[in-house]
Amino acid sequence: MAHARLFTRREIESLIAAGDIIVITQNTVLRLNAWKDKHPGGSLVLQHMIGRDATHEINISHSPEIVRSMRHYRIGRVDGVWGNLIPPIQGGVYHLHPEEEHTHKPTSSPHDSAYESDGSSDCVEIFEPEWENIKEVSKNMRHRTNAGVQQINTECDAQVLMSPEDYTTAEMQQALEKDLAKYPSLDVATQGDIAAKFQLLHQRVRDEGFYECRYVEYYKEMTRYATLFALFAFCLSRSWYFVSACFLGLFWHQIMFSAHDAGHRGITHNFTKDTLIGIFIADFCCGLSIGWWKSSHNVHHLVPNLPEHDPDIQNVPLFATSPSFFNSVKSSYYGTYFPWDAAAGVAVKYQKYTYYPVMALARFNLYVLSWLHLAKPHARAKGTTWWTWYVELTGISFYTFWYFYVILYRSIDTWQSRAIFLLTSHLVTMPLHVQITLSHWGTSTSDLGPAESFAQRQLRTTMDVECPKWLDFIHGGLQFQAVHHLFPRVPRHNLRRLQELVKEFCAETKIEYLIHGFAEGNCVVLNKLQDVANQAKMLAACQTHMAAVGHYDLE
After folding, report:
1. Is the sign of the CA dihedral 426, 429, 430, 432 positive or negative?
2. Residue 549 and residue 555: Cα distance in Å, rounded?
3. Contacts of 355 by beta carbon, 8 Å cutoff, 6+ apart
4. Averaged pLDDT for residues 543-547
5. What does the H/E/C string look like for 167-221?
């Protein structure tokens, strides 16, 4: 790489404008066009990293061997500190510059040398996000909001009247300013220092063996899984349907923790082996597509809590965790709008009360999402992972046969008993769904922009759950979500020890480490749901008043 071409910022923008998937890592420029439809983590993962320095995202998600293999996709380098661009999928717009429109020839070949060194002395232009620019954007947003003020309405609790768009902007701006005041500055020096300290932390994680899987812990868990399954089968043979269903639900609840590890390649660290483990647990044993889970979960890890991009918080009309949803968000994951309509307006009023009932039935929704994923053309992976779709389809079909036919229909006599067994076995898994939502639904949904470092973004949008060590098996290690988001490939049995290092990192960088007890964490989520419901209520009240007094045009 000593003589590789040095790219300017404008040239990188032109490559992106021409459709190339350009990612920066350790000051090298990667063109990943060849992986657009073959990347095991899904193509959207690549889309969200275009134009960004993805050094940390790549290192924490891939083994050192895979990282080294990426040298085959290098086309050059940049110099100095790279200021992240906004990926096109997140709204970034780029154009070919006039002098390059007839010379640029994009190619999907990772080994193409069209952009290798040409002997020029180009140097990269360093983009430095300035704090003054951030404050100016904030000032402009407040000015736009104030421009919508028409009059004071006592029925709206002395709130200014404004258009729905301006009201949403005001609420989002308030949350944004709160985060800007609470977390370290977004200037280059501060975020660069955080990134450097995180790199040192990651090296320490490697050196101290946190990536090493303690298989004895899985032997213990396999004993627990086998015991629960045996109790389910025994009670079913005695026609103790309710008790049998409880044990089956507990079996699903516990074994899915290992599927989570396999999905992150945290067990054997081998893609094929961990994929097969994941398919056996998720598809064959639980009827859920591990491919669907990885498709959405990988995106969630890269853009946690961004309303437009994180599928884990896109639950309108049932739930809204951000006022952003009031403007009818278009999901980059699903490719469709989540309209803020009458149904959403009604559901949001009661979301604090429907939270637990919906979580109790959430497993049925996972069946639907799994089948919908497998039915989509892009689910059939290309390249070396082509076989996963066929194995998954076999696994889910097997599950459908053994659970719905062999267990429900053939092993249980009456329709009433079947209904009790079906509902009970699924309701018992409810704590798992609460656990999953607990770590994010009560945290920030603000977008602080491309200047924010990887570590700060993950810690700002993720909450840990505090519990005694002897209760770890109930939470399955997922209570260490903040630690897990920083190091997703670290086996969950090592996360409690790693938590101490992360706390030290947070203290050193002045980033708040969010952690609550389980009960307190539930209160945080419920309060967040109520806050958004109150915002929606205020919006509706102001809209009603404006319609009554004839204020339709607020432009």
Report:
1. negative
2. 16
3. 319, 525, 526, 529
4. 70
5. HHHHHHHHHHHHHHHHCCCCCHHHHHHHHHHHHHHHHHHHHCCCCCCCHHHHHHH
Q: Tell me what percent of the residues of the chain surpass a pLDDT of 70.
A: 85
Buried b (16+ CB within 10 A) or exposed e, 202-217: beebeeeebbebeeee
Handedness of CA 274, 275, 276, 277 (dihedral sign): positive
Q: How far apart are CA 345 and CA 9, in angstroms?
A: 44
Name 107's Cβ contacts closer than 8 Å, sequence gap at least 6. 33, 114
Query: Which of 107-116, 277-286, 414-423 comes out lowest in average pLDDT?
Result: 107-116
CA torsion sign for 327, 333, 336, 342 is negative
Contacts of 247 (CB under 8 A, 6+ apart): 228, 229, 231, 232, 235
Q: Alpha carbon of 430 to those of 98, 425, 529: distances in Å?
A: 57, 10, 18
Report if pTM > 0.70. yes
What would the two tokens of residue 231 be?
Answer: 């109790």
Give the per-residue pLDDT at 181.
95
How far apart CA 404 and CA 367 sit, in angstroms, is 13
Between CA 12 and CA 22 the distance in angstroms is: 7
Cβ proximity of 323 and 532 under 8 Å? yes
Q: Measured in whole angstroms, how far is the alpha carbon of residue 43 from the centre of its chain?
A: 14
The pLDDT tens digits for 55-94 are 999 999 998 888 888 888 999 999 988 999 999 999 999 9
**Percent of the chain with pLDDT strictly greater than 90:** 73
Half-sphere exposure of 346 (CA within 13 A, CB side): 3
Query: Is the predicted pLDDT of residue 121 greater than 70, yes or no?
Result: no
CB atoms within 10 A of CB 386: 11
If we measure between CA atoms, which residue out of 498, 470, 185 comes closest to residue 481? Answer: 498
Please give the pLDDT value at position 134. 40
pLDDT at position 155 is: 39
pLDDT beyond 60 at 385: yes
Q: Please name which of 72, 155, 30 lies closest in space to residue 544, comparing C-alpha atoms.
A: 155
For the chain, list the domains and their CATH numbers.
9-100 (3.10.120.10), 196-509 (no CATH)
Distance from the Cα of residue 304 to its chain's centroid: 4
Beta bridge partners of residue 153, listed in sequence order = 159
CA angle 50, 463, 490 (to 5 degrees): 65
* Res. 467: pLDDT tops 80: yes
If you search the block for the tokens 């607020």, which residue do you land on? 554
Average pLDDT (368-380) is 90
Strands 152-153 and 159-160: antiparallel
- Tell me which amino acid residue 118 is: D
**Which of the 8 DSSP states describes residue 55?**
H
Secondary structure of residue 298 in the 3-state scheme: helix
Alpha carbons 255 and 321: distance in angstroms, whole number: 29
